[in-house]
Amino acid sequence: MPTVVERIAEARENVERACERAGREVEDVTIMAATKGRSVPEIVAAVEAGISDVGENYVQELLDKKGELDEAGYSEICWHTIGHLQRNKVRYVVPFCSRIHSVESMRLAQEIDKRAARIDRVQAVLLEVNIAGEESKFGIAPEQAAQLAEQVMELEHLQLRGLMTMPPYTNNSEDSRPLFKVLRDLAEQLVSLGLPNEAMSELSMGMSGDYQVAIEEGATTIRLGTALFGPGR
Q1: What CATH number is attached to the domain comprising 8?
Q2: pLDDT tens per residue across span 81-118
Q3: Total domain count for the chain?
Q4: Nearest Cα to Cα of residue 55 among 207, 171, 159
C-alpha cells in the first residue's frame, strides 16, 4: 500500500500533467488535504511531505485537530472550512481560517462579517454553488450567484475570492467536466457583470476522483482526501 508521501508525490505529478494539458502554471493550483475522518498522524505526514493547506468539513473536528497540531508544533497550517457551516459555529473558525468555502446565504455571510468585525479581521470566503441542483447538497443555484456576490461584496469584513462546487459522485471523471465548466463560466459571467477579477479569482472544485479534469477546467484549489491518504477507515 502506498504511503502518504508516495500518494502526494503521485498527486503532484498528476497536477503537473493536468496543468500542462491545460496550458496552466502548476503554481496556480493549490492541493488541499481534505481530512474529514483522518487522524492527526496522517495530517502530520501530509504536512511533512509539503502540504500546507488543510480542509475540514466539521467545525468540532477542525478545532480538535488544530489544537493537537498546534501543540505538536504545526501551527503554520493554512486551515480551510469546506463543509456546511452553521451560523452558530462561525465564531469558532473566523479567528484563524484562511478560507470559508461554503457561503450559501446572506444570513451566513452577515454572521461571518459580524464575527470578523469583532476581531478586526477580513475573512476570505467563497460562494458554494450547487451546480447540479442536488437536493441533498447545500449551495445556491447558479442564477442566485450574482445577487449574493454583490451583497457579499458590500460587507466590510468579508473578502469574496471566488466559487466552490461539489458535483455528484461518479465513477467517470468526465461526467464532472460539464459542471466544472459551468462554474468557470459563471465566474467569468460575474466578472463581466462588474465584479472585480480578484473576487472571482479562485475556483474550489475537484476531489480525488476528478481533480485532473477540474484543473483542466480552471480549478485553483483541489480538495483531496483518498488521493493523499488512501481509502478511509
Answers
A1: 3.20.20.10
A2: 999 999 999 999 999 999 999 999 999 999 999 999 99
A3: 1
A4: 207
